[in-house]
Design goal:
307 residues; mainly beta; Mac-2 Binding Protein; 6-stranded mixed β-sheet; 2 helices; elongated
């Protein structure tokens, strides 16, 4: 209505001082797309003096791009902790309600085509400075985070161990095909992720022989481990076959073969048991987990015959 591009914040409690005269509107509820306040839901035009000018509402508007974003501490330039530059200082975003739609907006701001994951819990390390956003709620179509819902600049209940991150992509990350239909117009949808991550290498460590041990995964030149949340025999089967064994006898948990070091790379792994590589199994994303090495997974494999 005032000719600005949008709003950064909606301060309450007479942040800009108390007004005078009648209080004309109450219970205002806009979608944000309206051209005029009269188009928003409200309690009706009247005199709401009982509300008191101590609760006068305000707005902080912007024109142009109000802030910049960048990614920090990722293994590549397409992933990392989200940092926001506002009024000359870099801050972070709290992961409350952080999801793929929010990550999409950040990735598009950085020139990528979209987002593959929205890691939380300081997956890419804890940041510093102020936590600028909390409870971010984007639709995923916005051009900037400034257009997304949030609680207000600097309003949060978080510490930096809740810093949000993103994993972005360029180009088309998925190929799809229809399978088992009666014609080429129908079928089961099968998806191949061609730009998510390369097939992973695995090894077993800490066992009494080469058939058993802690599962370790190679990613970006470094070995890491697998969290045991949801870890079962189907997951162990995939690992054992990757190593050239015939199958798995057991899927061990709670660091039975000792605690590893480096990053915990995978969490909540869910294989069918038929996959050729653990990268083809469902998981929360590389380095997205809530584990320590006390929860490192293991496998006991076998060769020859059936059990």
């Amino acid at each position: 209505m005032l000719g600005f591009d949008g709003a950064l914040d909606a301060p309450g409690a007479a942040q800009f001082g108390q007004g005078s005269g009648p209080i004309s509107l109450i219970y205002v509820s806009c979608d944000g797309t309206e051209d005029n306040l009269v188009d928003c839901a409200h309690g009706g035009v009247g005199d709401y003096s009982f509300c008191g000018h101590g609760r006068d509402a305000g707005a902080i508007c912007y024109s142009g791009e109000p802030f910049l974003v960048r990614l920090a501490n990722g293994a590549t330039d397409s992933e990392g902790r989200v940092k926001v530059l506002y009024k000359g200082s870099w801050g972070t975003i709290c992961d409350d309600n952080w999801d793929l739609r929010d990550a999409r907006v950040v990735c598009k701001m950085l020139g990528f085509n979209g987002a593959l994951a929205a890691p939380d819990s300081a997956t890419f390390g804890t940041g510093s400075g102020k936590i600028l956003f909390d409870d971010v709620g984007c639709n995923g179509t916005e051009d900037t985070l400034a257009e997304c819902y949030h609680r207000g600049f600097g309003v949060n209940n978080c510490e930096h161990d809740s810093d949000a991150g993103v994993i972005c992509f360029t180009g088309a990350p998925f190929l799809v095909q229809l399978v088992n239909g009666s014609n080429d117009l129908e079928g089961r949808v099968e998806v191949t992720c061609v730009k998510c991550w390369d097939p992973l290498k695995v090894r077993l460590n800490g066992g009494a022989n080469d058939l058993e041990g802690r599962v370790e995964v190679m990613y970006n030149g470094s070995w890491g481990t697998v969290c045991d949340n949801g870890w079962d025999l189907d997951d162990a089967r995939v690992v054992c076959r990757m190593l050239g064994f015939d199958g798995a006898l057991a899927a061990t948990v709670s660091a039975q073969f000792g605690q590893g070091n480096g990053n915990v790379l995978l969490g909540d792994v869910q294989c069918y048991g038929t996959e050729k590589n653990i990268a083809d199994c469902y998981h929360r994303g590389i380095r997205v987990h809530n584990c320590t090495h006390a929860s490192d997974s293991g496998a006991i494999c076998f060769s020859g015959g059936t059990i």
